[in-house]
């Protein structure tokens, strides 16, 4: 018996990204390299920030936490996906599926909140520079980071509780390479009208609201930079451009997938690759290649 009181399904079958053996080998090579880049790139960012006293500002503290979240997010998905790509039968136990879903949304929602906090940090640095050190102190930063993790935990707990009370009696085939909310609840043996609306309002609206807050903060930043043409403001604007690239890679796919109740598309699993694999790979590259201070610290660490 699975977690739900009326569930008879003890495992799910994952169809994966492709059923062609040649493509599976190609995907395995690509995702193995991507996972290695995520681990090495984000660990390098964390070590660089933690070892260089010059990188002790709130922006780099938040960046360090973003790298840690990226490692966690990819580690929830990639190891099992790599094993499944080499397996003939891709199955996952009901309890493991719920656990994967829980931790994915835990770290995913935490990253959404953290990216929003990072946008607020840049807004404060540009629009309120004289009060920046008072507003974004180390203590405030740690409180905001803790709030991001707490918000992610609450969001994921709500998702899990909504799913485990559903009865699953078959079919048990998921057209994806990991367990996610939309394809899993479609397999429930009951009317999921209310559940789908709750899921969309929980995941989809969180993504949309955070994205709108981010866009609004950048609009204020652009207006401020347009008025004050100073070298310092252009430097901050360059950092914000990097941040916006990360935001686009992460939020747009999430909004597309989670803000649509009552429908799942075959393309959803390919779009999911963007925020589960591609975005964590690009984050350290975007932040290091466009940030002279981080590059200088990495070179110093290398020497």
From TrEMBL:
<dbReference type="InterPro" id="IPR017452">
    <property type="entry name" value="GPCR_Rhodpsn_7TM"/>
</dbReference>
<feature type="transmembrane region" description="Helical">
    <location>
        <begin position="59"/>
        <end position="78"/>
    </location>
</feature>
<feature type="transmembrane region" description="Helical">
    <location>
        <begin position="271"/>
        <end position="289"/>
    </location>
</feature>
<keyword id="KW-0716">Sensory transduction</keyword>
<keyword id="KW-0807">Transducer</keyword>
<dbReference type="Pfam" id="PF13853">
    <property type="entry name" value="7tm_4"/>
</dbReference>
<keyword id="KW-1133">Transmembrane helix</keyword>
<dbReference type="GO" id="GO:0005886">
    <property type="term" value="C:plasma membrane"/>
</dbReference>
<feature type="transmembrane region" description="Helical">
    <location>
        <begin position="237"/>
        <end position="259"/>
    </location>
</feature>
<feature type="transmembrane region" description="Helical">
    <location>
        <begin position="25"/>
        <end position="47"/>
    </location>
</feature>
<dbReference type="InterPro" id="IPR000725">
    <property type="entry name" value="Olfact_rcpt"/>
</dbReference>
<dbReference type="InterPro" id="IPR000276">
    <property type="entry name" value="GPCR_Rhodpsn"/>
</dbReference>
<comment type="similarity">
    <text>Belongs to the G-protein coupled receptor 1 family.</text>
</comment>
<keyword id="KW-0297">G-protein coupled receptor</keyword>
<dbReference type="InterPro" id="IPR050427">
    <property type="entry name" value="Olfactory_Receptors"/>
</dbReference>
<feature type="transmembrane region" description="Helical">
    <location>
        <begin position="98"/>
        <end position="120"/>
    </location>
</feature>
<dbReference type="GO" id="GO:0004930">
    <property type="term" value="F:G protein-coupled receptor activity"/>
</dbReference>
<feature type="domain" description="G-protein coupled receptors family 1 profile">
    <location>
        <begin position="41"/>
        <end position="287"/>
    </location>
</feature>
<feature type="transmembrane region" description="Helical">
    <location>
        <begin position="140"/>
        <end position="164"/>
    </location>
</feature>
<keyword id="KW-0675">Receptor</keyword>
<keyword id="KW-0472">Membrane</keyword>
<keyword id="KW-0812">Transmembrane</keyword>
<protein>
    <recommendedName>
        <fullName>Olfactory receptor</fullName>
    </recommendedName>
</protein>
<keyword id="KW-0552">Olfaction</keyword>
<keyword id="KW-1003">Cell membrane</keyword>
<feature type="transmembrane region" description="Helical">
    <location>
        <begin position="205"/>
        <end position="225"/>
    </location>
</feature>
<dbReference type="GO" id="GO:0004984">
    <property type="term" value="F:olfactory receptor activity"/>
</dbReference>
